Amino acid sequence: xxxxxxxxxxxxxxxxxxxxxxxxxxxxxxxxxxxxxxxxxxxxxxxxxxxxxxxxxxxxxxxxxxxxxxxxxxxxxxxxxxxxxxxxxxxxxxx
Amino acid sequence: xxxxxxxxxxxxxxxxxxxxxxxxxxxxxxxxxxxxxxxxxxxxxxxxxxxxxxxxxxxxxxxxxxxxxxxxxxxxxxxxxxxxxxxxxxxxxxxxxxxxxxxxxxxxxxxxxxxxxxxxxxxxxxxxxxxxxxxxxxxxxxxxxxxxxxxxxxxxxxxxxxxxxxxxxxxxxxxxxxxxxxxxxxxxxxxxxxxxxxxxxxxxxxxxxxxxxxxxxxxxxxxxxxxxxxxxxxxxxxxxxxxxxxxxxxxxxxxxxxxxxxxxxxxxxxxxxxxxxxxxxxxxxxxxxxxxxxxxxxxxxxxxxxxxxxxxxxxxxxxxxxxxxxxxxxxxxxxxxxxxxxxxxxxxxxxxxxxxxxxxxxxxxxxxxxxxxxxxxxxxxxxxxxxxxxxxxxxxxxxxxxxxxxxxxxxxxxxxxxxxxxxxxxxxxxxxxxxxxxxxxxxxxxxxxxxxxxxxxxxxxxxxxxxxxxxxxx
Lengths: 95, 474
What we know:
The complex is a heterodimer of chains A (95) and B (474).
Chain A: H1 8-14, H2 21-41, H3 73-77, E1 83-84, E2 87-91
Antiparallel strand pairs in A: 1-2
Chain B: E1 3-14, H1 53-65, E2 77-80, E3 90-93, E4 100-109, E5 112-125, E6 129-132, E7 136-140, E8 147-153, H2 160-176, E9 189-199, E10 209-214, H3 217-236, E11 244-249, E12 254-260, E13 270-271, H4 282-289, H5 296-307, H6 311-319, H7 321-331, H8 337-355, H9 366-377, H10 383-396, H11 400-407, H12 415-428, H13 430-437, H14 444-454, H15 461-473
Parallel strand pairs in B: 10-11
Antiparallel strand pairs in B: 1-8, 1-9, 2-3, 2-13, 4-5, 5-8, 6-7, 9-10, 11-12
Helix pairs in contact in B: 2-3, 5-6, 6-7, 7-8, 7-9, 9-10, 12-14, 12-15, 14-15
């Protein structure tokens, strides 16, 4: 029941994942199966069901505009592979 | 062939909140890098973003000020893309159910009033700031998560100058409403410009080029003025335009291609599962509506119509709201609004600037300016005397009529006293007196000067002139 109405290479690129041809075949089939299961839901008649934005029936969960302490710079940068002068250092990407 | 330019703007404005959009980190410019950050705005796994209520109120208020509808249902979505300044690899924004829709902005342009329709104004989070070095880039996430209002216009703009004026009007409205400080130096306003050209009269839009991330209004104007002829020349040469995103190089003064439609991002929007939808209640919205302010253009038109003052004067009172408020109180019930506007703009504003005070700190009430103009118009004091009264008012406060009394500034219009001074001047200066009698009217000014001198400036010059003429002709 594999659903193949998608391009596995395109999806992999969007997720920035490099796949070997074997992985493409395997993951493509698995993703296809998942889409197939979801497709079954389309068989249900939902004409009388309001679309919902969330499974939990809550709205307007907001917080007051109050400042709370931030974390120290050292903690913020603790897991950075590279840092200089308090900045996260990343490969140069200029769009 | 003649072409028409079609421009639409997406304007991003940072909201004036104390804390960020989804966490309690301070919304503040100019801190040490990565010091106003926390696990939420750094995009750590397992954190829970919670929307800032103040930001939602400002969004709704901005909607009302832009004549938008504020729907009873809105939600947040994730816009997915990879870029180092996006800590989560997605941006929380609003996609298909934004907080405000379909409005318009009216503004002055080319001697008339223009209207630009607003498609929507939605709330999202700002991203971090990158600095680029020789080999690497550095990212500061202090700005990440700052509430950002994106105001999308319909393609109703027809020139670079019109786009420039629209942005100025938008900025003024947002500052008026307390939505944003719109400080360009601090990068609080940035816009993306969509530009196309089409043969004049054509219905269909031309191929659209988007110029990203303009951070000055003048840069935007220059970019449009570069891009429009580029597009027209391409078409004139028989070339074709491709839908693309271009970057403005402010130093070179040109736009260059960043990516074409084929390489366009696929953002895979989907509902943000961590944030509940928004269903603003009527009482919540009515509280927001209580903060609606008069828009700058409406204020200008009202000042011109209601008080009969010139447009330039009204502009001063639009640009300086407290001064305009002072003027409105001063002018209430007055006959000579123009004179009151002159005193408020030329004298009061000048002294306020010079002394670094504010309208709130003044030592006198607005009614004092109305009284001052009243006694000048009645001839009780001269304009020069008025200046003295104003100085005293500004420095020590008081009531104009009492100041006139205390300083002895009242003009003498009493005929017996004036007759005596005028006769003395005629007797002491027979030459000029005879000149006047012989028809040299200008000579009367010399005699007038003598009378003013004798009265130490207190004589009413107009009455002096009349008295001299009467005595010389009898």
